[in-house]
Amino acid sequence: xxxxxxxxxxxxxxxxxxGKKKPKLENATDTTFKTKAIQIPEQLKEDGxxxxxxxxxxxxxxxxxxxxxxxxxxxxxxxxxxxxxxxxPFVIDAHLSSIISEVAAVFTDKxxxxxxxxxxxxxxxxxxxxxxxxxxxxxxxxxxxxxAMTHISEGIQEDSLKVLDVLLEAYPALLTDRSVILLxxxxxxxxxxxxxxxxxxxxxxxxxxxxxxNRRVTSQQWRLxxxxxxxxxxQAVVVGSSETExxxxxxxxxxxxxVRNPICISWKLHANNQxxxxxxxxxxxxxxxxxxxxxxxxxxxxxxxxxxxxxxxxLKGFIEIIIPLLIECWIEASPAQSAPILxxxxxxxxxxxxxxxxxxxxLLWKLTKQHDETYKMELWLRMNYLVDFKHHFMRHFPYSLxxxxxxxxxxxxxxxxxxxxxxxxxxxxxxxxxxxxxxVSLASTSTLQTDxxxxxxxxxxxxxxxxxxxxxxxxxxxxxxGVTWRLMQIQQNKVATEPLIKAVYTLYQQRNLLFPxxxxxxxxxxxxxxxxxxxxxxxxxxxxxxxxxxAGLPQQLxxxxxxxxxxxxxxxxxxxxxxxxxxxELLQSLQATAARIYDPLEGTLVLLPAExxxxxxxxxxxxxxxxxxxxxxxxxxCIMGRMSSDLAATLIGILHMRSSFAGWKCQVQDNSVxxxxxxxxxxxxxxxxxxxxxxxxxxxxxxxxxSQTQLSPIxxxxxxxxxxxxxxxxTEVI
Length: 734
Prior knowledge:
Blueprint: H1 3-10, H2 41-44, H3 59-65, H4 71-87, H5 90-94, H6 96-105, H7 112-126, H8 131-134, H9 138-149, H10 154-170, H11 172-176, H12 179-190, E1 191-195, E2 205-209, H13 219-240, H14 267-271, H15 279-283, H16 298-301, H17 304-307, H18 312-333, H19 335-338, E3 345-346, H20 348-368, H21 374-392, E4 400-401, H22 413-441, H23 452-467, H24 474-490, H25 494-508, H26 515-533, H27 544-560, H28 565-580, H29 584-597, H30 604-607, H31 610-619, H32 628-640, H33 645-658, H34 675-687, H35 691-698, E5 706-708, E6 715-717, H36 721-733
Parallel strand pairs: 3-4
Antiparallel strand pairs: 1-2, 5-6
Helix pairs in contact: 3-4, 4-7, 6-9, 7-10, 9-10, 10-13, 12-13, 12-18, 13-20, 18-20, 20-22, 22-24, 23-24, 23-25, 24-25, 24-26, 25-26, 25-27, 26-28, 27-28, 27-29, 28-31, 31-33, 32-34, 33-36
C-alpha cells in the first residue's frame, strides 16, 4: 500500500444512502440528561396554624385564587371559602378585612357564575358578621356596589340588585348612610340624562326613561325590579330617621329616651312632706326649648351631600328627579294605554309596577314631614305635583285587578283561580289605599272647596271598603283608618265625620276579627273620643255612634273574661279614660255591668292578672252608685284571696273615700254608698265569711277542719298559713 492510498483512506468521504439515518459526528455533544424528584416531607404536612377545607386549602390559598384569570378557579375559590368559613367560623374575625375586600371585588366580575357565588357567600357572611364589625370596611363594599350598579354590562347590573337585597336586609343603617350616591345609581338604572333644548340656557339636566333591548327581561319588568329595591331602600331611610310616624293612625312611637318610669306614691307620706314627687324625672318626656340657639354638632359640619335625604335641599332635588320618572312609568303601565275599554282593570305585572310607584311617592311624602318647615314642604308638593296626580292617578280611581287565569293543568286550574282571586283582592286594595294616602296628604281645610271632587271619591271608597271589610288584614285596616282620620281632620263638621265613624263602627261590630285589627279599631275610637272631648262645650257635638261604642265597652269586657288578657287591658284603659272624664253613657253602662265584672267566682276582676285587677279596682271610684249587692261581691273578692292583700287594702280605701266618713269638706255625691251597707261590707270582710257560710259552718260537727278546745266552748276554723296572713293584712286595714 502506497502512502497516497493510505492518505485517501483516512479522509474517505462517507456516501449517504436514501432511507438510512445520518451517522453522528465524532465531535457531537451529548445533550441528554436524567432527573430525579426530590421529596421534602415537611411540605406535605398540613399547616398547623390555619385550618383547611376538604381540598387541603387554607384561607390564604383560597383568597389568592380570587385573583386567578380563570372563572372556574375563582368560582371554586368562592365555594371553598364558604365551606371553610362554615366549618371554622373563627377564621372570619381573623381575616375579615381580606375576605370583605376580595368578595366585594368580584361584584363586577365578567362571569355570571362567579357573581352568583359571591352573592351566596355574601349572604352567608351577613348572618355571621355584625354591623359594628363590618362598619369600617363598608365604604369599600358600597364603592364596589356602586360600581356594579353603574356598570356597562346588563348582567352585572342585574346581579348588583341581588347584592343590594342582601345588604338591605343585613345592614340597612350602614347602607342608608350613603344614600346620595346610591339614589343617583337607582335613577341611572332606569333612565339617562338628556340636556333639554329649552333648558340649555339654565344648564339643567333632565332625565328620561331608557330602553335597553339587550336585557333578558322587558323594560317594564326591569323597572319593576329597580323600583322594588328603591322602595326597600327608602323604607330603610324612613325607619332610620328620627321621629318616624306610624302608617295609618300616625302615632309617634316611644323613643329609647322616653321610657316612662312608674312611681309609687303614698298619700300619707306625701301629705306629711316625707315623700317628694319628681314629675319631670319620671315623666319620660323631654321639655321643648323655644329657642333658636343650638349647640354646634358634628352633623352641622357636614355638607348637604353627606347629609343625604335628611337635608331638605337634597330631598327636594331627588323628588324633582324621581317624580317625573315615576309618572312616566305610571303612564306606560296605566290602563288607558294598555286597554282603554277596560277602564280601571289592571293586569298583575302592571298593578305591581303601579304599586311600587305609589309606595315610593308615599315614602318620600313621609320623609318630607320630618323637616322643620313641614308646611312649606307640603305647600311645595301641592303646587308642583297635585295637577299631575289628579290627571294621571285619579283618572281611573278606584282600581281593580283583571283576573287572568293561565290554564296550565286542568286539575290545578280551579285551585289556581281561587288563589289568584284572594291575592288579587289584597293587591288592588293596597294600591288604592296608598293612592288615598298620597292624595289626602295634599289636601287641607283651606283647600276643601277646590279639592271637593276627588275628596268625595276617596271618602266614598273608604266608606264602602270599611262597611264590607270583614276579610281585611291589619295592614289594610291601618291604612284605611289613617285615611279616615285625615279626612276627619280636613272636614270636621258632623255631617262629614259621622258617616265615616259609622263605617268604622260597622267593621268593629264584625265577629271573629283578628286581634291586631281589633286593637287598631280600639285605638282609632279612643283617639277620636279624646279629640272630641278636647273641644270646648260651646262647639262640642257628641257623636251618637261614638257614644254607642263607649256604652258597649263594659259589656264587652265582662264577656271577654280571660280569653284575651291583652285586649282586656286595652278595654280597661279606654273605660278608665272615659270614666275619669265623667262620660254619662259609659258610667251608666259600667254601673249596669258592675255585678258581672266584680263577680267573686267568674268575674273579670278575679280572672285577670294583678295589673289589670288594680285598674279594675280603681274603676270602683267612678261608679255612680255602690249598692249592697255590689258591696257583697267586693267583700267576697277581698276574702277569697283571688287578689292580693295590698289590692284589697286599696279597694277598702276607695270605698272609705266614697263613704260619708271620709271627712270631705265639700259635699259628697248623695246615695253613692249607704252607711249601713258600708259597715256591713267592713264587718263581713273582717269576719271572713258571709252569713250563709257562717250558718253552714255552725251546723257542721266532727269535721277535721273544725277544732274545739277544752278550755273554751268556741269552735275554731283551721286555715292554712297563706290564707291566715292574707286575712290578717285585710283585718289590719279595716
